[in-house]
Amino acid sequence: MRVLMLGWEFPxxxxxxxxxxxxxxxxxxxxxxxxxxxxxxxxxxxEDTRFVSLVGADQVPVRRVQRxxxxxETVRAAWSKLPDAVRTSAEGIDVLLAEAGARxxxxxxxxxRAFELVAIDSPLRPYLDDAEYEQSLDLLAEAGIEPAxxxxxxxxxxxxxxxxxxxxxxxxxxxxxxxxxxxxxxxxLVRESTREQRFVFRGAYGPDLFAEVARYALVVGEIARxxxxxxIHAHDWMTYPAALVAKAITGRPLVLHMHACEYDRSGEAVxxxxxxxxxxGFDGADRIACVSHYTAxxxxxxxxxxxxxxxxxxxxxxxxEAAAVLHEEKAIPEPIVLFLGRITxxxxxxxxxxxxxxxxxxxxxxxxxMSGSGDMLPRMIERAARKGLARHMxxxxxxxxxxxxxxxxxxxxxxxxxxSEPFGISPLEAMALDTPVIVSRQSGxxxxxxxxxxxxxxxxxxxxxxxxxLLRYDALSQQLVEDxxxxxxxxxxxxxxxxxxxxxxxLVA
Length: 509
What we know:
The protein is of the alpha/beta class. 44% of the residues lie in helices and 14% in strands. Residues 65-69, 85-93, 117-121 and 148-195 have low confidence and may be disordered.
């Protein structure tokens, strides 16, 4: 069995548990003979590909002109089936050709019969001045990649990109008005669009995320036409448009993997664009793999997903080197209480700081560490200062790889105070390194852990009391470590890989 798997990150280039889970799942599937072709927006060359064939969308040439009429109709039909929010608008190019075609109607008619032109994003953005735009082209040139629309046509057209209201990542090309030096000829447009070109991806979660999601979908559509596979498997909303494109082109069954939804990340203040993409994905999926029953209930409540299509496949943990080796690296005598994760609303960092303030009143020698990055980091630094924690709270920034393992091993307690956590791999990673954990009851991981202390995220007094109990009672801490070690040994990716393979077999049997 071969699976086309779509994910936005893959170790070591990750921002959280998503990439870690993707790696573990591919490892588990490989154990059961499932071949995985994994497409990320951008590959770096240092990924661990022992269990997977990894493809960077930035390395896939996409021919902008389809010379085969039948294939062009297939692509057009595939896109027409998708929600408006998923499609990248091609009307702008048609407008350009219509205006130019007025000078040569016969040529315009021949081109319309022979070619399928697909609109693409470019480095052009609203309100760029000439110097800024030239700089963006130079950066692409340094990377050895031509701008998607081609330097010649881009400089000549001087088009501006505007966001169409109510669409996601769907640029509309509009003539540049007074800034238009000259209109490119049809020959120039065709010459630029017939070259095999590559899209540029940051592969991150920056301001161009929606545009990258649209470009990623185009590249995955190209891959879907070229590759052979039995099932499509897509992780989280960034890949759902691409998954829908691949399904529309190939007719292969689609499994969506829900690691976190917009209601988990943002509470009630959801981004409607993301929410709509998620809904479109769920509506088009044949199966939806949920990382917990907590997540499955969220999908039934907010997205009205039929429970018959839901399957729960919990995450697991990748077992690392002996914890004793890393514990020897601890250099300070004071107890360390750790928060490690994205510093965002979903992860509850403010509750961690409030609990820390209560602990310090009783045990002033304790050190608290907040590791990670996110939009709430500046506010958390200010919050810690206001609560008099300047000497007790340390912010490390984002950690990866060996740094994460060392931080878990140095900690005496790991706390995950998430407001809404579909699963939460980090407590498993901490337990694998013999660190006792406290987890929010509002998490999926609490379903599979017996040897962890559990608390409601809003109960900062209860959280503080549990931290103090683990610091004061060595027997309690040691019992959690020893029993947790045994529990963790049973949470293996090869077991979860078998469960996921069963989901695939439901669709291809």
